Amino acid sequence: MFYNEYSFWGMHMFWWVVWMIMLFWIFATPYDIPGQRRTKDSPLDILQKRFAAGKITNAEYQEAKLILTNDLVK
Q: Where are the transmembrane segments (predicted)?
């Protein structure tokens, strides 16, 4: 009835684009929660946090740090 002049498709396509942008923003952002820009911790950062919390000894920390730094150099 009202769609003979194709005025329906302009707004229809607009909403498809809006929904696609929203879905991309929610599911394809490289962050845990959209809008929260927090980077992932590197293995060395995790090791330092474990050492600071007292979960590993100094010898374990030095050994793991040596392994991680040698892997990063290669």
A: 6-28
Contacts of 64 (CB under 8 A, 6+ apart): 47, 56
Number of domains the chain contains = 1
Give the chain's count of helices (H) and strands (E): 3, 0
The contacts of residue 51 (CB under 8 Å, 6+ apart) are 58, 61
pLDDT over 70 at 74, yes or no: no
Taking only the tens place, the pLDDT of each residue in 15-52 is 888 999 988 887 776 655 555 666 678 888 999 999 99
Instruction: Note down the domain range covering 10.
Output: 5-31+40-72
> Does the predicted model carry a pTM greater than 0.70?
no
